[in-house]
Amino acid sequence: MLRGTEKGTFSAMTLFAWLAIGVGVGAMSSLLSVMYGFESSLKSKVLNAYPHIIIESENSTRSVPRIDELENSIRRISKVKRVLPFIQNEMILKTEKRSIGLVVWALPEKEMGNLNFQLKDGKWPTSEGGVAPIMLGSEIGERLGILSGEQVRLISPLEKSGALGLVPQSQTFVVSGLFSSGHYEFDEQYGLLVLEDAQELLGWNNQISGWQIWVDSLEDTSGVLSEIQKYIPPTLQAKSWETFNSALFQSLKLEQYSMFMILSFAILIAVMNIVITLTMNVAHKRKNIGILIALGATQKQIRKIFLWQGGFMGAVGLTIGALLTTAFIMYVKYFSMYQLPEIYYDRSIPVELRPLSIALIYAVATLLIYLATIYPAAQAARLNAIEAIRE
Questions:
Q1: What are the domain boundaries of the chain?
Q2: How far is CA 231 from the centre of its chain?
């Protein structure tokens, strides 16, 4: 860095330029790490509750016959973990105090315990005993004050013929227990029934809503879905988690993109500080530059001085940004005691470092810093030595 003969003091503007770059890059890296953490946590919680692929009628409200041959064909597909026939229907849950809407999921009895749900109270529903069992989400149980062993009534909007004409179908169930999927909305809306009990309530005999399919990993979903399309008849459709949760994940991607664009302006402002600092430095050191030119320094050498000065300022700023990002992530991950409300998918703030994204941020910032040094360096190289010395 050029220093004036009258002063060798450190420039406060240089410090501000360092801090501006560090804070801008650190804020972008930290915020995106938190948003990536929320995305991964959300994906994990949602897919813990919902299947990876669903096969159902093109009109999702209609029932379809259970086809054993189709089930067996899908089970033979590589990377398919589980294939479950299911019934899903919206009903009314009535207790002694109040009634609420409930989405009923009915699954085979032997598969209940294989769900990635946590048993909060009671036991998994079975077909043993007199009164058919139902298992409720923990949030429903908390809202209604229901515990295992209590009786409730399910009312289906599907009507059947009776002595008084068409009447809603209803049946008394005993609450076998409460479950927690880790997904707040699922625990607030869903209840589990044994498949045969739901068929009896709805009068569906051997009819079901479709099949739920789990695969070994999310990356296998697209390939398995393509294989399934070969086996299902035209009256059925297969959808992956990317389809029936598309609005949720697309909105998250849009939010990430928006925050990236907004924070990009912070980095641009930081880079402008480098331009201003170097431009003022050129103006302040005109006489020194003129002397160097008079002593034989070429334009290329003068330009290099300011390019290196700008590069050094950028390198220090990026280092500060890396330290700030590391400090933030370490604090959030290991020292922060802040707890989010229960409606969030995670009680703690999740973070996830994605090296490619961090590398892209630093690469773009480095490019902008380099571009920022070109104008002041060119301005210094074009100085007239005689005029500069006279000044």
A1: 12-45+248-390, 54-240
A2: 32
